[in-house]
Amino acid sequence: MIKESLIHQAFEVAVERYAAVGVDVHKALNDMQKISLSLHCWQADDVSGFENQGNSLSGGIQVTGNYPGRARTIDQLRADILKAKSYIPGRHRLNLHEIYGDFQGKKVDRDAVEPKHFESWMQWAKVNDFKLDFNSTSFSHPKSGDLTLANPNDEIRNFWIEHTKRCRLISEEMGKYQNDPCMMNLWIHDGSKEVPANRLRYRCILEQSLDDIYSADYKNMKDCIEAKLFGIGLENYTVGSYDFYLGYGVKKNKIVTLDTGHFHLTESIADKVSSLLLFTPEIMLHVSRPVRWDSDHVVTLTDDLLDLAREIIRCNALDRVHIGLDYFDATINRIGAYVIGSRATQKAFMQALLDPIRLLCQYEDESKYFERLALQEEAKSLPWGAVWDMFCLQNDVPVGESYINEVERYEKEVTGKR
Ligand SMILES: C[C@H](O)[C@H](O)[C@@H](O)C(=O)CO
Ligand SMILES: [Mn+2]
């Protein structure tokens, strides 16, 4: 247990150090309090959901590991999410996939899902101070195959169009219920293992499907479209590539989702933020950690993540960027995985909010490039950790590593007994 008086002392020193470079720590703390993450429900159960159809995970994604204790029922999933939330400072959102509906043990196919299947989620979220976001689910279904919304087969394509339309309606109802727009993400795995004979054909079909899906206007939900470099088993061609969705988003005023695992490994996601902000309405993020490929490792505080957070703050775009998480690791304690990734993301934003931006901009205006580089370097070792600790203390969540023992206790008492 870290002594509270030490946290206060370190914080006072940090206030002074940051003031010397023109940064108001109290304002940074205040801004930090307003940042909500959208926690992905699927870390708790390895993207299984509650359809009870016995479908294994398919559609270009894969979870590795078999750590004991995954959530198997809606009650277990909710309990695990609340547990994770208790170690994450601030107020947050929860991101549901369609397969997590409250189906009460009945088989409800994807083209028959209705808002009523998410009523209990809406009530639960309200009681537990979450706002909900939503995703259509095109994977792990007998009709998933290699092509869903881009499928030339009318029956299969119309099935998925119907599913996605229904998901928009569910999102609209969620948004209305919570009096805050529900962000609905659309990601499909459609693609091909080998080079197709005609790439354009499938992209034309996808464009038409999307136009049909988006023909209804809603007020309480926002549409986001997520590209991917490739899915597993679909390595040569992805119908919904970044260029495709960027073009569609700009033309049709849709929000592009940037999943940080969905690009070439040396591509900077941070650099995309300012361009997207100019030409699309808002940005949805899926913060992930690719290791050699889109491996969805637990998010940690990497330079890439810091760059991304800094870019959002420097663009003054917190009100236009939605911060969702997207990773799944079944090799370690799943609640711990939530906490590590969420806190890492928050730490990146904490550091970004403490950046001496005004002074850096001043140096740049005056063409003082040595001074700019020197300050960028020195800022890296300013005592941001003391401000982060204070943020945790103020939010009544464990400071530093003290959550480790608590996660272990929950494993011993709850998840380990499943
Ligand atoms: C389960 C998610 O929807 C999925 O991870 C998607 O967002 C994605 O990133 C697929 O690679
Ligand atoms: Mn994603």
UniProtKB/TrEMBL annotation:
Enzyme's top EC category: isomerase
SUPFAM superfamilies per UniProt: Xylose isomerase-like
GO molecular function, one term: manganese ion binding
Reactions catalysed: L-rhamnopyranose = L-rhamnulose
Cell compartments where the protein resides: Cytoplasm
Protein task: Catalyzes the interconversion of L-rhamnose and L-rhamnulose.
Cofactor binding note: Binds 1 Mn(2+) ion per subunit.
EC nos: 5.3.1.14
Metabolic or biological pathway, per its Swiss-Prot or TrEMBL entry: Carbohydrate degradation; L-rhamnose degradation; glycerone phosphate from L-rhamnose: step 1/3
NCBIfam families: PRK01076.1 (NF002203)
GO biological process: L-lyxose metabolic process; rhamnose catabolic process
Protein name: L-rhamnose isomerase
InterPro entries assigned to the protein according to its UniProt record, in alphabetical order: L-rhamnose_isomerase, Rhamnose_isomerase, Xyl_isomerase-like_sf
Predominant subcellular localization, coarse grouping: cytoplasm
Protein family according to the UniProt entry: Belongs to the rhamnose isomerase family.
Names of required cofactors: Mn(2+)
One term under GO cellular component: cytoplasm
The organism of origin for this protein: Parabacteroides chinchillae
One Pfam family it belongs to: RhaA
Source organism superkingdom: Bacteria
Keyword Isomerase: yes
Gene3D superfamilies referenced in this protein's UniProt entry, alphabetically: Divalent-metal-dependent TIM barrel enzymes
Keyword Cytoplasm on entry: yes
Positions with a binding annotation for Mn(2+): 262, 294, 296
Protein keywords: Cytoplasm, Isomerase, Manganese, Metal-binding, Rhamnose metabolism
